[in-house]
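Lab channel / #folding
Pinned by the channel admin:
"Please post every new chain as: sequence first, then the structure tokens as a reply. Keep commentary short and put observations after the output so the thread stays searchable."

First post following the new format, from NK:
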Amino acid sequence: MMRSEDFKATEAESRCGAPDTSSSRIEHQKPPASQKKLPKIVSLFSGAGGLDLGFKKAGFTISVAIDASDAAIRTHKQNFPRTKAEVGDLVKLQPAGVVELVQKKLKPGQAIAVIGGPPCQGFSRANTGALTSDPRNKLPKLYLQIVEALQALYTVEFIVFENVLGIRDKKHAKTYKALKDGIAGLGFDVTEKELCSVDFGVPQNRRRIILSGMRSGQGYATVKPRKRKGLETVRQAIGSLEQPMYFKYGLKPEDIPVHPNHWTMQPRSPRFDNPDAEAADGRSFKRLNWNKASPTIAFGHREIHVHPDGRRRLSIYEALLLQGFPKTFVLVGNLSEQVEQVSNAVPPPLAHSVATAVKRAMRGG
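Reply from TO:
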């Protein structure tokens, strides 16, 4: 069920607290739609559902979720049993295929919204070999094409697009400008925000770009996520947990105490025998500090962060908590699949603040 690969972080860590970037929108053309019914959510590149969880908590219904990962969709189905979650590569499905899946759940003419963040590795600053020609960099364009196709059958009230800060870097400037212009060209008022998880009650310095587009001419206000107090340190999030189970072949989730994801790999490196030895300052073998927020939880092809005691790596469950997931949320899949899901997720508390900001905007402010 679980594999014994070891993984390392893919996303560059950086301190947070940066001010929000500028936003732009057209003037109101209609009175605020204070009593408007919330649109149904279509989640693209849904992963395990971190962004979806925030919108669900804000009162939205997650109607359709699509992701290429079978394990992520199995996780999604377990945690969102009423959602139509489908395994699907959006590149292969193309807009027509997505519309076909959505029609199986939602009748044409309904009010919907589209949320999601395409895989970010092609834009990540941690990917020093990233090229502008990376095929994944074409996914924002596909995202817009899907929205446009959905507009032919549904009223798309808003969209939310999430990605790493690197998407704004100079080498990706053309792609990013095309994305913002494309959102506006589809009839949305665009707001751009740079948000950090630690400002929204998540003990993690994870910075992301959030582009929101509200349907023009509806009296919608600007989307302004409000910061909120919450957990601030690693100790507050995982300090009271007992030791996790170590991986062994045949290990079953039901055999793991505390939580089905509270397990990690056997600490084989000699560094774990002398955790206080001076180590090079880099992304490899990054040890967390009990009294600070965690660096970005994004593992991919680099090492899973080291627990503050220095004698093992974090468990999957500990990583989930540092991402702000509730204790009841469970990931399914083998080690690499669970690592990918927790790494790629949008922290739910941040997503919730974005969702409530969208909800306020729909009601005129």
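NK: The first helix runs from residue 50 to 57.
TO: also worth noting, The beta strands are 40-44, 62-67, 84-87, 111-116, 155-164, 188-196, 207-215, 245-246, 263-264.
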